[in-house]
């Protein structure tokens, strides 16, 4: 690395080595503000790395002040929308999992019933022992607890 530069938003940093200095492999690497490498590319005869400039805002000064003044309200509104979208997705996932568990339980009970009928028919499990087995069989209670600890959505470009 011979140089580094932050992008205008402050979210990304680029480290780069140019071919102006001898003895270096020329190219660049892009990193996010947390230090995670997003991309690395070696480029022959790499001379310069520049971020695109940010365009000037088209809002008048009074509207910019109004937005800065109400920024907390806008942030709260967007947080509520994000939470609603997240709970919608979580509800759909939970509904799918419950349906799959119900299907499994239905298949399991049908398979168990079929197995018992086959054992009775073949004489492997006499009817006399059936009552003992039913008495000894404990009631199974299955409880599924799901908790979303952290959910992240990353866009890698």
Molecular structure report:
With 157 residues, the chain is an alpha+beta fold. Among the domains are: 3-42, no CATH class; 62-128. Helices cover 45% and strands 14% of the residues. The protein is built from 3 helices and 4 strands, in the order E-E-E-E-H-H-H. The chain has helices at 61-69, 71-122, 127-136, and strands at residues 3-6, 12-17, 27-32, 37-42. A 4-stranded antiparallel beta sheet has the order 1-2-3-4, with no helix packed on it. Strand 1 (3-6) and strand 2 form a beta hairpin. The two termini are 22 Å apart. The mean pLDDT is 83.
In a nutshell, what does this entry contain?
This protein has helices at residues 61-69, 71-122, 127-136, and strands at 3-6, 12-17, 27-32, 37-42. By secondary structure, the chain is an alpha+beta fold.
List the helices and strands and how they pair.
Elements: E1 3-6, E2 12-17, E3 27-32, E4 37-42, H1 61-69, H2 71-122, H3 127-136
Antiparallel strand pairs: 1-2, 2-3, 3-4
Based on CA atoms alone, the radius of gyration comes out at 32 Å
Coarse structural class: alpha+beta
Strand fraction band?
Answer: 5-15%
Note the overall shape.
Answer: elongated
Span of the ends, CA to CA: 22 Å
Give, in spatial order, the strands making up the sheet with the most strands: 1-2-3-4
What is the average of the pLDDT values?
83
The counted number of beta strands is 4
Low-confidence stretches: none
Largest sheet: 4 strands, antiparallel
């Amino acid at each position: 690395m011979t140089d580094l530069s932050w992008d205008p938003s402050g979210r990304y940093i680029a480290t780069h080595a140019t071919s102006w200095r001898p003895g270096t492999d020329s190219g660049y690497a892009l990193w996010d503000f947390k230090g995670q490498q997003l991309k690395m590319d070696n480029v022959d005869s790499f001379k310069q790395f520049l971020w695109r400039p940010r365009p000037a805002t088209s809002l008048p000064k009074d509207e910019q002040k109004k937005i800065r003044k109400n920024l907390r309200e806008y942030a709260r509104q967007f947080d509520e929308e994000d939470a609603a979208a997240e709970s919608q997705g979580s509800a759909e996932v939970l509904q799918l999992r419950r349906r799959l568990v119900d299907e499994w339980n239905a298949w399991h009970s049908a398979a168990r019933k079929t197995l018992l009928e086959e054992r009775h028919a073949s004489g492997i499990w006499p009817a006399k022992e059936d009552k003992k087995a039913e008495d000894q069989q404990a009631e199974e209670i299955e409880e599924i607890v799901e908790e979303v600890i952290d959910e992240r959505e990353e866009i890698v470009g």
